Amino acid sequence: MPEAFDFTWYEMALLVLAGFAAGIINTLAGSGTLFTFGAMLFLGIPITLANTTNRIGVFFQNIAGIASYLKYGKHSFQDLKLIYVLPTLVGAMLGAYMATGASEALLNLVAASVMCVLGLDLAFDLKKHFFSGGTKNVTYPAWLIVSLMLIVGFYGGFIQIGIGLLMIAVLYRFVSPDLRKSNFLKLVLILIYTIPTTLLFILKGQIIWIPALLLSIGQVIGAYLAGFYSNVSPDAEKWIKKLMIIMIFATITKIVFW
After folding, report:
1. Which range, 161-165, 185-189, 254-258, has the best average confidence (pLDDT)?
2. Overall number of domains in the chain
3. CA-CA distance, 17 to 21, in Å (whole number)?
């Protein structure tokens, strides 16, 4: 069971604000977990518990983001296919099981490694590689998509930092050339695997409920507003791309230097 934590009113307010920022960033792009992790680590919560506690907010945030997309955008669950739903779910469950016994050093190593890979892609023009039309006029073999989604799912189940960036990059490049559609699919897939993985963390007693609920409040509000903006603003796609690039740098900085 996690140790008890006492929070002042301003620490609680910080958690809500961090959740709000994460909800916006995660809905428009990804890596908003930078804010929720940062807030929890600042308050003395170890990364092992921050990693599991964060999942409650992700669950509610993605529900709000999906609802906003469905209300204001032209999206539906018909875009979901088992070829990427099932491997993502299987990978996430395996990753979550590994996370229940992972050390702080291992979590930091994995997160930093993945962000460095994204940084290398960025150095070789991430925009050119991932934002030049996605799967337009290209059909990728099923084994490749299954393998990629299994890996992305495993990472998402193991540690949440950067999963939005990883998943939307894979979806946009190999599944859908429409960035808004890829963003919607990202929200749905993360929600699907977050349900069983969060239940696992609850059963293991690895959720700190006060920060989990406070972050959730902020994340729901931020996700709903971001979903509305993404679908009604003609500049949304441009900002999604910029946010992805900015958050890669920010996440690497946080993991390596903080």
Report:
1. 185-189
2. 1
3. 6
